[in-house]
What we know:
This protein is of the alpha+beta class. It has 17 helices and 14 strands. It has three domains: 2-72 and 357-399, no CATH class; 76-224 and 238-246 and 257-270, Beta-lactamase (3-Layer(aba) Sandwich), CATH 3.40.710; 280-349, no CATH class.
Amino acid sequence: MNKLYKYLQQCPFLIAVLCIVFLNAADLPVSAAQPDEILSKIENETRASNTDELVLIKDRKVIFQYSSGRFTSPILAMSASKSIVALAVGLAIDDGALKSVDERVSDFFPEWQNDHRNRITVRHLLNHTSGIRAKKTTEDIYLEPDFVKHALRADLTSNPGADFFYNNRATNLLPAVLQMATGKRMDVYLREKLFRKLGVNDADWFWQLDKAGNPYGMSGLYIRPLALAAVGQLILQNGLWNGKQIISRKWLKEMLTPGQQHEPGCGYLWWLKSNPEEDQIYFDDQLISQYKENKVSEIHLKRLQPMVGRTFFRNELKNRLLAAFGSKENAQSFLSEISRLGLPDGKLKTGPVSAYVAEGYLGQFLVIIPKKKIVAVRMLHHTSTTTDSNFQTFPGLVQNLDTHTPTSP
């Protein structure tokens, strides 16, 4: 018992997890150091969005936890699963099973060796620049018995590295590459190299397979929120867990850096987020010319003119438009028009990256904020979906747990 006590003293995160298990509480006491207003917003939106599970951890202590009580089994993380696939790639590189992200996919699939697809690398699969032909939706993929063969049959729509396209079809190749490199199916490899080392039980997670027995790459991870939070805590601790380096700092740094030049908000299957309250927006002559080319109303362009060349915070846009356009109806008319034309409502200048986010359909989130030592997880079972379920404000609210709204520049 003394040995166990000493061990728990060294693992405050584990203590927090055990407290939740034994107390089976829906709402845990909140640290007085946290701003009540932000936590109140999180709690209100948690309930309003029909959330099933939510947990906030700061400094390795649970500061807020909610459960709908509807489910006790693991929940599908949707596309947040991709971010765990990126960790599996890093583990394989750390092991020496995979040479590097610049290893060619055709080294594993000889059918690509003698055509233009032989230039695709693991890096291209990780940063969504493979050029593999794919649809924005996944309906066609789910009709296929073998996701890997489905991806291998695809031609290219652009040269590898030339364009960014969020590509579910291409990411399904990564588990197959990992299996060939490591000799183990990806979920088996993750069980050995990641989850068991974090103390995550097999009952707390599993990975969905296609009919051919391949783990999904685009999705597939069913996991309980505290197990997903443990993964976030590992990343927050630079890959260190109970004094052991589970995954290298080098890989985490590379994974959480913009992986290509086209989309600065994306690393290797992770989203790199700035604080929404620090994002700025502006209108310049180039954007106005784009509006003119697309025949935006001259009245709207005239009313917009006083805002050209000025920079302000993104969350001030509606108030600025209201002042420039004279009424809520006029401002909304402008926003509706450019939305219909597929045009941006200004040019965005994001603030510095402050959060790493694994995100999936229905608002599945793992949010990591290194500077504040925060890990947050929000999950929704697909049967709990309502029209207001996505909770897209969750990462931003978490980022502002102990910050203040900045003033305009």
